[in-house]
């Protein structure tokens, strides 16, 4: 994967910092929880032969679970902040390297589905694509892959393809 040279080291340092903070917080939280469990086991006079292995397993599995929880929590917080407030999001350093003559295929597989619904979904997708990216809409090609076994479904799918081509002459639609 190619990163812009100017932003790569900074992003890598920020990523390592986030991982280190996440691991330290997980370690601190599970250590506190394990210590509290240890105090309760002492209070109820458990034998060291019982609470020793139990606390070891409790800490190990708890640390594993805590790292996932803390990671999800930090991910949730970062997602609430949004892309604009996250200076290390890859979109800020992304380089547009796509060749202008490149075409993108949008493949719509159908297997004994209602062709009118699929046609309506393709029409809505095309309309939305033209509205949001009018200058790049000509680079998208729609392909309908039919694996239907019923002859009636196949005929309806062909009809939908022809109607889409009539209604939207710009997007290349193939059936």
Helix and strand string, N-terminal first? HHHEHEHE
> Low-confidence stretches at least 5 residues in length (pLDDT < 50)?
1-7
Q: What percent of the residues sit in helical stretches (DSSP H or I)?
A: 55-70%
The major pleated sheet works out as:
3 strands, parallel
Structural class: mainly alpha
Shape: elongated
What would the average pLDDT be, to the nearest integer?
A: 83
Protein architecture, described:
- The protein is mainly alpha-helical and 175 residues long.
- It contains five helices and three strands.
- The protein has a three-stranded parallel sheet with strand order 1-2-3, covered by helices on one side.
- α1 (8-43) packs antiparallel against α2 (48-81) and α4 packs parallel to α5.
- It is elongated, with a radius of gyration of 28 Å.
Short note summarizing the structure:
The protein has 175 residues and is mainly α. It has five helices and three strands; from the N terminus they run H-H-H-E-H-E-H-E.
Salient structural properties:
single chain; 175 residues; mainly alpha; three-stranded parallel sheet; 5 helices; 3 strands; 62% helix; elongated; disordered N terminus
């Amino acid at each position: 994967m190619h990163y812009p040279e100017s932003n790569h080291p900074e992003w890598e340092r920020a990523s390592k910092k986030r991982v280190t903070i996440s691991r330290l917080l997980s370690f601190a939280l599970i250590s506190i929880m394990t210590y509290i469990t240890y105090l309760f086991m002492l209070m109820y006079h458990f034998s060291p032969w019982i609470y020793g292995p139990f606390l070891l397993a409790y800490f190990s599995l708890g640390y594993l679970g805590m790292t996932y929880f803390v990671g999800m929590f930090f991910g949730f917080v970062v997602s609430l902040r949004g892309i604009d407030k996250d200076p290390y999001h890859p979109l800020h350093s992304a380089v547009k390297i796509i060749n202008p003559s490149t075409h993108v295929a949008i493949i719509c597989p159908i297997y004994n589905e209602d062709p009118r619904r699929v046609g309506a979904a393709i029409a809505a997708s095309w309309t939305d694509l033209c509205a949001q990216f009018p200058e790049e809409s000509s680079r998208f090609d729609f392909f309908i892959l039919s694996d239907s076994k019923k002859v009636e479904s196949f005929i309806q799918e062909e009809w939908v393809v022809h109607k889409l081509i009539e209604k939207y002459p710009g997007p290349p639609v193939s059936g």
